[in-house]
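Q: Protein A?
A:
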Amino acid sequence: MYYICKRMEISASHHLVLDYESKCRLPHGHNWMITVYCKSQELNANGMVCDFTHIKEKIHNYLDHGNLNDLLPFNPTAENIARWVVDQIPECYKAIVQESEGNMAWYEED
């Protein structure tokens, strides 16, 4: 099995739709760190699991400096964003979304 990992920083705003009072219900921003993990039994014709540039185009270039509530069709929690990242890249099996130094969420396919 071949593995790659791509880490990128994304500056983006969002607000959360919650059923309780929280400051996170108000628009705010983060410098998100998103780590994308991909794997493949075989390398593609170019000798890669997946091109790092392809990952950046699908994730960073789409989300960076955007309002995640406008860009994503769900409540943009770190958990939901991690799942979305995995769904964007066929070779991706795990994504970690860190919204601050102490807050991280990840999604991993079984």
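Q: Protein B?
A:
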Amino acid sequence: MMSKILVIGANGTVGTELVRLLSDQGHDVVRATSRAPTSAQEAHLNLITGEGLATVFAGIDAAFLLSPPGYTNQNELLNPVIDQAVASGVQKLVLMTAMGANADEAAPFRKVERHLEQSGLAYNIIRPNWFMQNFHTFWIQGILEQGKVLLPVGKAKGSFIDARDIAAVVSVLLTQRDRDNQDFDLTGGEALDHDEVAALLSNATGRTIVYEEISDEAMLAQLLATGLPTDYAHFLITILGFFKAGYSEAITPAVETITGTKPRAFAAYAQDFKDAWVV
């Protein structure tokens, strides 16, 4: 049965791929946009102001929800969206938070998870680990300018996940009901430290790329220089500290369990995006 599915965050790293997958499967996909809609496949929703919320779920069977980057008050932004989904008769909601979000009941993301669990909606919660795609977005400047991955994470390993695998998981969870009301930590299939990451990027690009550990202070200055809000920059420093402490190393089988396909290896990601790091 084909469904009408709303994708919130449709222009993001996961959302773009999710829209493509669902459309290829024949579903009627509506992309939430904070701008004025330009087609019937778009619906207006500004998560920051709440504008468009009253009508965005009209006729929607299932929806994908995530928090806009740059904000740390995720519960204030997303809980009203969950309430509106309930009021609008949405049948299923898939929420993306982040690995470790359930470690602290007071954390804003955890409050959203709890709100969804208690809403009465059929749901799934996915908590992905750090995205591979960060290396050609958030962390790209040091690689392009200095040939260096600059992060304050020591020798800790991370089971990085390709955002395309996250989208594949979401596409299954939105369209099948056999895993309703479960939550999943999503990781890649290998745990790598940043020296290993840099070596894989070097192999893919033919450039010499190395990892250099920097201080939290230097990282904070970098983040603020890119224009990130101060509270969000401090939030990133905190979660990078969790990475350094070893919390991002665990590997889960969820991607293969849900999609039937093993998660992409970092080497494959590096090959697919190698042009991003070529100067």
